[in-house]
Amino acid sequence: MEVNSEPEEIITDVIEAISDKQIMIIGEMGTGKSTLAQYLAYTLGGQIKVVECEGTPDDWQGLEVVGKGENWTAIEAFLQSGLKDLSNQMKLREQHGDKYLDGTEVTTIVEEFPELVSKCDSTDEWLDRHARRGRKARRPTILLSQYDRVAAWGMEGKSDLLDAFYRIRLGKKALSHAKSMKNDELINWLKQDRSHALLDDNPCKLPPYREMKAVISRPLLEKGTQPEKIPEKPLKPRSEADFEEKVSESDEFLWRLILKYGEGKTDSAIVKDVLSMTGNRYSEGKDLLERLRRQFG
After folding, report:
1. pLDDT digits (tens, 9 = 90+) for 254-289
2. According to the 3-state scheme, what is the secondary structure of the chain?
3. For a 10 Å CB count at each end of the chain, is N or C smaller?
């Protein structure tokens, strides 16, 4: 029998909830792992670095990316440099205290982390030290993967290391975990909305996709990556008589991104490459693109 009630305690402030540990994001393709990772990283503040062996020029726009084209040598060098940096941060903390590290934050996002386990010699040490001391050293990490097996992460038999991470499960991975808990109420809740996820064993409602995308887009616009003048496709004022939708700041950010990076692209490419809405979210992306065109086009 289907359960219609909601869980009693739902986490609605994911940033506050993850403040004391490192992060794993687990979900199949198209569930928004990279969007969530960037949202968390930008909200945490500081610099952001990305390790990505399969990235394209359009991925992770505005961020420093290491390892494109399966450059494992560059990734190994990055991991070794990160170990030295972590040691320096801990020395500064010991000598001057926590406040001395304020403003030095660097968040590292690692796409498909399990692949590094078998390809880079420094992965185990990097993971161990960042898991245990990364937060204290102002070096938060966000590890992404499609796999939810401990062995794939190189953490088999390392329960203490796992305890240093919160695991955010999305999509089918969240459902599978809820089923393993035999929690029908949680299973039904997860099916209700794509923003419903699990933070470890707890229900967590993530911010709406457009809100996360606006947070990600804002630094790009502030750095001047948006076109200064767009004479061919200017933003047009909305007519209240014609449209019922309310123009939001996040919609304007998204439309500027479309104008900047969507020129010459098909609608399908805009949805997938600019709005990053693929897989199960593709239809939603098509609807969003059409609505933005009605508002601004």
Report:
1. 787 788 777 778 888 788 777 767 666 777 778 888
2. CCCCCCCCCCECCHHHHCCCCEEEEECCCCCCHHHHHHHHHHHHCCEEEEECCCCCCCCCCCCEEECCCCCHHHHHHHHHHHHHHHHHHHHHHHHHCHHHHCCCCEEEEECCHHHHHHHCCCHHHHHHHHHHHCCCCCCCEEEEECCCCCHHHCCCCCHHHHCCEEEEECHHHHHHHHHHCCCHHHHHHHHHCCCEEEECCEEEECCCHHHHHHHHHHHHHHCCCCCCCCCCCCCCCCCCCCCCCCCCHHHHHHHHHHHHHCCCCCHHHHHHHHCCCCHHHHHHHHHHHHHHHHHHC
3. N
CA distance 141 to 86: 12
Which of 51, 30, 31, 49 shows the shortest CA–CA distance to 41?
Answer: 49
Predicted model pTM: 0.74
Please give the CATH superfamily to which domain 14-207 belongs: P-loop containing nucleotide triphosphate hydrolases (3.40.50.300)
- Taking only the tens place, the pLDDT of each residue in 164-199 is 999 999 999 999 999 999 999 999 999 999 999 999
Burial class (CB in 10 A: 0-12, 13-18, 19+), 231: exposed
From residue 236, give the alpha-carbon distance in Å to each of 232, 256, 260, 285: 11, 12, 16, 21
The one-letter code for the residue type at 128 is D
Instruction: Quote the tokens at residue 230.
Output: 């767009």
Phi-psi region of 182 (alpha: psi -120 to 50; beta: other; left: phi over 0): left
